[in-house]
Amino acid sequence: MARSALLNVMVQAAVKAGKSLTRDFGEVQNLQVSVKGPGDFVSQADFKAEKIVHDELMKARPTYGFLGEEGGEEKGTDGAHRWIVDPLDGTTNFLHGIPQFATSIALERNGEIVAGVIFNPATDELFTAEKGGGAFLNDRRLRVAARRVLSDCVIGCGVPHLGRGNHGKFLVELRHVMGEVAGVRRMGAAALDLAYVAAGRLDGFWEAELHPWDMAAGLILIKEAGGFASDMKGGQNMFETKTVVAGNELIQKALLEVSNRPVPSR
């Protein structure tokens, strides 16, 4: 597959960060871990990976803005472009030795995501997408799954944990969804979950309390793989509402409806 110069820069940054993460993953028990909040851990590996990605991207495009999970936002002089980066999505998985984590990089141009890269170094899976150019896993073209009814579908989600999210609201959503589908999965890395929707591994996905770096790259992957995504109100304000519902055209609409059903009367 042919890649633009910008996408090549993003791939190189993700792969370089991935090499660092792979080394630290092998030494996961020896990592220095600090606590950001209840149940939300950050490791030295996370900071190292973000520095690698930041340095690689800014070396190539020094005028672009940068929004990273760990380092916050830097305004660029360019004004039109911004990198959106999660250096280690799935930090808790990483720290527990579970090989379900990734580096996620997206490029935003005038408020629109135009390119995305998600790389899991543990499985050597590289998901890439560019506006109008399709979505790929390594060099294989991706399409969202073609299932037409929820009862045939496996749906991914995020589950709120200690100190995070609205537990009661999620339990209502889960009650509705689990009664309509073939299976529900919670794998602990939203960027990869969205990539899995693009790859047809998951038929759909919904989650609340996400940040732009959790979903930016995944959103363009899904779009370029023929899928659809919205916020949980059915709009396109995913970053503002911190919510996402994704799937193919039919499943996305059905999942949106089911996940928004009101609290049962009994």
From TrEMBL:
UniProt source species: Neorhizobium huautlense
Keyword NAD appears in the UniProt entry: no
Signal peptide, first to last residue: none
High-level lineage: Bacteria, Pseudomonadati, Pseudomonadota, Alphaproteobacteria, Hyphomicrobiales
EC number: 3.1.3.25
Top-level class of the enzyme under EC nomenclature: hydrolase
Protein name (Swiss-Prot/TrEMBL): Inositol-1-monophosphatase
Similarity field: Belongs to the inositol monophosphatase superfamily.
Domain of life: Bacteria
UniProt keyword terms in alphabetical order: Hydrolase, Magnesium, Metal-binding
InterPro entries tied to this protein: IMPase (IPR033942), Inositol_monoP_metal-BS (IPR020583), Inositol_monophosphatase-like (IPR000760), Inositol_monophosphatase_CS (IPR020550), Inositol_monophosphatase_SuhB (IPR022337)
Pfam families noted in UniProt: Inositol_P
Cofactor(s) this protein cannot do without: Mg(2+)
